[in-house]
């Protein structure tokens, strides 16, 4: 009889974990849709535009490091942003092999339309937790990732359901 009670409790707990995971996924999905609706951009595109704004005229390599995406992925994002007139790319006067990107007026306008990114809200809330609680959450989330088979997956610190894996070929 005790084994039955334990199984029901375990099932309830498993259910609660799956519901919590689904809420996280849903929050990320809804935020991605809000960003797309308000600005016409994906989360990675907004991150790249923000980084160009913050870093000034910048190379693809430096942008790649700033947004934690591969250079190939950033190049694809820059191609799309340039096609839409949100950035301009140009070659360095000193070294023609170096290409810089800069925001256009349309790029600055698009950024103003974009709502805050979900991970920005998370960073602020997470910073308000004690160091002990932060470490507990990291350990728990690492455990959840392992249970889902995602321990070895490469992931950028972007909360977006359509965020690319490094070097992926997804349309951004």
Automatic annotation (TrEMBL):
Gene Ontology terms for molecular function: DNA-binding transcription factor activity
InterPro entries, per database record: HTH_MarR-typ, MarR/SlyA-like, WH-like_DNA-bd_sf, WH_DNA-bd_sf
Domain HTH marR-type per the UniProt entry, residue ranges: 14-146
Domain of life the protein comes from: Bacteria
SUPFAM superfamilies found in the cross-reference section: Winged helix' DNA-binding domain (SSF46785)
Protein's GO biological process: response to stress
SMART domains, alphabetized: HTH_MARR
PANTHER family noted in UniProt: MARR FAMILY REGULATORY PROTEIN, TRANSCRIPTIONAL REGULATOR, MARR FAMILY
Protein's name in the database: MarR family transcriptional regulator
Lineage of the species this protein comes from: Bacteria, Pseudomonadati, Pseudomonadota, Alphaproteobacteria, Rhodospirillales
